[in-house]
Amino acid sequence: MMKTQCDCDFVINNSVGLQAHYDNCSLTWSEKHPGKECPKNADGTVKLLNKHLLNLDVDILYHLGLDTLNYDLPAMFGDVKFVCMGGTKHRMREFAQYISSVLNLPRQGEKLVNLTKHSQRYAMYKVGPVLSVSHGVGIPSMTTLLQEVIKLLSYAKAKNPFIFRLGTSGGLNIPAGSVVVSSFGLSGDLKKSYSVPVLGKIRELPSFLDSRVCQEVHSLVSEDDDFNTYIGGTMAADDFYRGQARLDGPFCDYSETDKMTFLKTLTNLGVKNIEMEATAFSAFTREAGIRAGIVCVTLLNRLDGDQVTPSKATLTEWQKRPMVVLGRYIKQYVDAHTNNI
Question: 114 to each of 92, 98, 111, 320, how far by Cα in Å?
Answer without folding.
Answer: 11, 16, 10, 21
